[in-house]
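Reading a protein record of the kind used here takes only a little practice. To see the layout at work, look at the sequence and tokens printed below.
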Amino acid sequence: MTQRMTSQRIKILHYLKNVHTHPTAEMIFQEVKKDLPAITLATVYRNLHLLAEQGTISQMEVNKEYRYDANTCYHQHGICDECGKIVDFHQEELSQHLLDNIKTEEFKPECVSITFTGLCKKCSEVNKK
């Protein structure tokens, strides 16, 4: 069942499409309520859940909290094991290679989600000392 795009959902999606920081629901709420002062945190959570369920946005768990991204295809995420920072890798050829070479007759993949874990540059430098 397709849900109609409410003004709240449109604002949330617009915000996510224009940031590249993988914000939490609380961060999104703080920004969206500047334009929609009557919006509640529960409304933001409900809309994020729906958008993620529809595949319109991606939701990833980092340090026991969800982070959100409106860019759902053809890029990869690196998540720092120390500080939880999320870094985007824009290597479309990597995603395309996986899609082109998957061996299955049971399923036709259209998108791939790749997450790397490790250390960000800052945490890596701190751990060297």
Notes: Strands lie at 58-62, 65-69, 76-80, 86-89, 114-118. The longest strand covers residues 58-62. The mean pLDDT is 91. Residues 2 and 54 are 8 Å apart (CA to CA).
